[in-house]
Structure prediction request, 276 residues.
Amino acid sequence: MGKAYLLVICLLLTPFTGCMEDDTDDKETEEEIIREWDFFAIEVDHNIVANLSNHVAIGIANLGNRSADFNVSFDSDYPLHFLEYSSDFTVSEGGTEVELSLEPGVVRILILEISSTSDFNSADISATMNWDSGSSSKSISLNFSYVPKGERVEIGNTTYSYYSGFLERNGKLFDSNIEDVWDNYGYFMEGTTSANRYTAILTAQNVGCNGAGDPSEDCDSGRQMILGFDQGMVGMYVNQTLYVVIPPEDAYGTNPDGHFLGGETLIFSIRIVSVE
Prediction:
């Protein structure tokens, strides 16, 4: 029986016998699934003031090519809790665990509030990426050193501070005057590079002021910083570090065409180093 005849028979019977080989896998390979991620402290060593509210922050980044679910947690005995500042993640009752989903390329900054005595010197934080058939875990350690509480920032003061600014929607850094952040934070907003770096202490005059004499006779003129940053400093103490989440209307406005940060919710870390 000839090959041509056999081929005809095979074609006729294929719906019933499946006698032809399926080479689809050879022609169309499934896209490789990449599950890479990063879990890190924005600053590992922290100077904090005992018995005063202080903030520290950690970051989690989805470096793969699929959206992924994460949970981050720590020992419930720690004098810490996560701040729930966004609807994009969920904080457990008690504030010891966060659940979130991240799209590829997105970094989420998680802010922790700590108020403790000098007996609390370190914390271990764990994170897990979960998918249908498995998971991957990482952990980091935060170290705390205690510094004295300095003078309180009052309306009309001039402050000197260190800061870092991040986009809330994707965790990208757009500005800082902290050398360690420039050197070690790996996720920059497009157009922001180490060439933009500077490390001079930030001077801000007329903190909390709308204008001369308003709302205090200590005001010589209006504030120099955006409203959210300015309001975040009022009431802080020297040596205290806080993270402030600033909506567009209190930052650079809601119009994305008016400023390169227009329409963006911003996260700023602020550490006051002196006040006058």
User: Anything to note?
Assistant: The longest helix spans residues 3-17. Residues 6-11, 24-29 have pLDDT under 50 and may be disordered. The longest strand covers residues 134-146.
